[in-house]
Amino acid sequence: MVISLGWLHDSSSLRFAFGVKSRRLEELVTRGWVRLAGHLDRDACAALAKPRMLPWSPMAPKVGAVTQHGWFAQVPFHKAPPPVQAFGSLVQATVSAALDHKLPDWNEVTWQRYEPGRGHIDPHRDQAYYKGLILIVTLTGEAEFTIFQSRDPPVMLDRWTTRGGDVVLLRGADLGAAGVRCPLHGVGAPASDRLTVALRHNERGYGRWAAH
Ligand SMILES: O=C(O)CCC(=O)C(=O)O
């Protein structure tokens, strides 16, 4: 069965579609990730870009055992640009319908920028306070995205090159069963600037994290 809620309009009149087979979205529960390669075109990616006036902040170089390098910028979902809210709402509704389970509302939008040669995030699980679904869109640039079974020793389950327009859906905490977590994942350094936008539901409330 194909879930397609048709077109959703936003004030810029850009239209998003999110027609994805329910069976594929069920993989969020059965294995924890879904990769939708080339799902968005260049115009759609441009519409999801960080607002110019929103400043970048450096990501903490170390969070526990995880090293990372990059820049981030955040806004609450309800203050995000209309295209981000439109796409986020469409994905939330579509995945909720496919899983027959109402996902928690997004409350955190995060843009990230990775510099060539050094931007990266080591294998990690998003914190347990990120519930439901995690949505990551690569807006521009390319990097290796890896799903791991274990960090030490590093055992890989899946790996692909994520590119502009790719959408990655990750299981957040408690999706499908109490106690389940986000899959262990990491991203390598890009060859040229890489930009992403991610939507999450932080059960502690917007921006409440120890370190990013
Ligand atoms: O850059 C990406 O595609 C993934 C980022 C990530 O793993 C994270 O923010 O937790």
Can you describe this structure?
There is one protein chain. The chain has 212 residues and is an alpha+beta fold. It has a single domain, classed as q2cbj1_9rhob like domain (Jelly Rolls, Sandwich). Helix content is 16%, strand content 39%. It is built from 3 helices and 17 strands. The protein has helices at residues 22-30, 42-47, 82-99, and strands at 2-3, 8-9, 15-16, 20-21, 33-36, 57-58, 62-63, 66-69, 71-76, 108-114, 120-124, 130-140, 143-150, 155-162, 167-171, 184-187, 194-202. Helix 1 packs across helix 3. It is globular, with a radius of gyration of 16 Å. Residues 1-11 have low confidence and may be disordered. Bound molecules: 2-oxoglutaric acid.
Outline of this structure?
With 212 residues, the chain is α+β, with helices and mostly antiparallel strands. Helices cover 16% and strands 39% of the residues.
Spell out the blueprint of helices and strands.
Elements: E1 2-3, E2 8-9, E3 15-16, E4 20-21, H1 22-30, E5 33-36, H2 42-47, E6 57-58, E7 62-63, E8 66-69, E9 71-76, H3 82-99, E10 108-114, E11 120-124, E12 130-140, E13 143-150, E14 155-162, E15 167-171, E16 184-187, E17 194-202
Antiparallel strand pairs: 1-4, 2-3, 5-15, 6-9, 7-8, 8-11, 9-10, 10-17, 11-16, 12-15, 12-17, 13-14, 13-16
Helix pairs in contact: 1-3
